Amino acid sequence: MKSVMLVEDHMVVRVGYQRLLESSGYFKVGAEAVSGEEAVALYKTNRPDLVLMDLSLPNMDGIDAVKRIRTYDPEARILIISLHDNVLVAEKALESGALGYVTKSSNGETIIKAAEMVVNGGRFISPDIAEKIALKKIDGGVGPLMQLTRREQDIFLGMAEGKTIQELASQLHVSDKTVSNNVSNIKNKLGLKTATEFVHLAMQYDLLPK
């Protein structure tokens, strides 16, 4: 039986995942974390076979937690399960070291299949995200956002989600001035002027969680 660490700040959701995973007879939840920082600490003491992690976490987001866990253990097997159903976020999660990405709208069968593949060293992307990645390759990108650098894309999404300059600076481990400069570059490249326009453009390309 494979040990699992659940990283999710909503207790009801954690209970649901635990029941789902343990109903397979293949997994046993042995640790639970409610923040990215706690996930990193618990991973070091528990060394689970699989980490099932949300991206939207307090203090340290899932992306940073994945990076830190993978730095500690390059063989860590992490499956992201998130409300975000857009390509940029999924790619960012996979680039950080996660082996799989499924959306919270996925059915139980898909989540179990993803968990089994990832815990055995495979990769898995839920069909809804895989389809969008394929369409992105065909279309050549996600509209005008492809002219942004990777950091500018991260900052654009953060601004669209309502994060402050200070919050983004802390999340990205850069100075407030660096974030402000990037915001200016984004506005110039995309012709944006207000925070509301960030939100509208993100919604236009389906980049915000439902």
Distance between the termini: 34 Å
Structural class: alpha/beta
Query: Element order, helices and strands?
Result: EHEHEHEHEHEHHHHH
Strand numbers in spatial order across the main sheet: 2-1-3-4-5-6
How big is the Rg?
Answer: 17 Å
CATH architectural group of the largest domain:
3-Layer(aba) Sandwich
CATH topology of the largest domain: Rossmann fold
How many beta strands in the DSSP annotation?
A: 6
CATH superfamily (homologous) name of the largest domain? Response regulator
Which CATH class of the largest domain applies here? Answer: Alpha Beta
Strand content: 5-15%
Can you tell me about this structure?
The chain is α/β, with parallel strands linked by helices and 210 residues long. It has 2 domains: 2-135, Response regulator (Rossmann fold, 3-Layer(aba) Sandwich), CATH 3.40.50; 143-204, Arc Repressor Mutant, subunit A. Helices cover 54% and strands 13% of the residues. It is built from 10 helices and 6 strands, in the order βαβαβαβαβαβααααα. It has a 6-stranded parallel sheet with strand order 2-1-3-4-5-6, with helices on both faces. Strand 1, helix 1 (11-23) and strand 2 (27-33) form a beta-alpha-beta unit. The longest helix has 15 residues, at 176-190. The two termini are 34 Å apart. The model has no long low-confidence stretch (mean pLDDT 88).
